[in-house]
Amino acid sequence: MDMDWANPEAIAAGLALYRSTECTSCHGQKAEGVVGPSLAGLIREQTIDMVRNGGVLMPAFSIDKLSEEDLTAIITYLRSLSTQSSGELGQ
Ligand code: HEC
């Protein structure tokens, strides 16, 4: 993986997108889980599958709604949560 998962700017951008795409309404302000599960520390493949295809209650986000770049940024944010206490950046 050639991404810099610890890049603070990428993480901040991902947090902003995570909120503006309204993932928060089901997954929480800090990805701690509400209706949907906690997303802290997700692996990339798992995230893309569920976000693109949807689940039972999880809506599908097609490429029209969420670009590949934006999804990558959100994943970067979520992954950053695994190495810290969940949601530390989400103040
Ligand atoms: C309407 C509520 C809702 C919204 C909005 C929503 N989710 Fe979900 N999400 C869920 C639910 C509920 C699940 C659990 C699977 C299911 O029941 O569909 C889930 C599952 C997931 C999973 C899989 C988690 C796992 O451990 O398997 C990921 C990743 C995910 N959501 C990411 C996102 C992202 C990123 C966004 C914003 C782009 C988002 N979700 C927006 C409700 C939502």
Written description of the protein model:
- The structure is a single chain.
- The radius of gyration is 12 Å and the shape is globular.
- The longest helix is centred in the first third of the chain and has 13 residues.
- 44% of the residues lie in helices and 0% in strands.
- It has one domain: Cytochrome c-like domain (Cytochrome Bc1 Complex, Chain D, domain 2).
- With 91 residues, it is an all-alpha fold.
- About 7% of the residues have low confidence.
- α1 crosses α4.
- It contains 4 helices and no strands.
- Bound molecules: heme C.
- The domain count comes to 1
Fraction of residues in β-strands: under 5%
Oligomer: single chain
| Helical amount | 40-55%
How many strand elements?
0
Give the cofactors and ligands.
heme C
Globally, the shape reads: globular
**What is the level-2 CATH architecture name?**
Orthogonal Bundle
- Runs in which pLDDT lies below 50 for 5 or more consecutive residues are 83-88
CATH topology: Cytochrome Bc1 Complex, Chain D, domain 2
Terminal CA distance: 28 Å
Secondary structural class: mainly alpha
List the helices and strands and how they pair.
Blueprint lengths: L7 H13 L3 H4 L16 H10 L14 H13 L11
The protein binds heme C.
Summarize the entry for a quick read:
With 91 residues, the chain is mainly alpha-helical.
Task: List the keywords.
single chain; 91 residues; mainly alpha; Cytochrome Bc1 Complex, Chain D, domain 2; 4 helices; globular; binds heme C
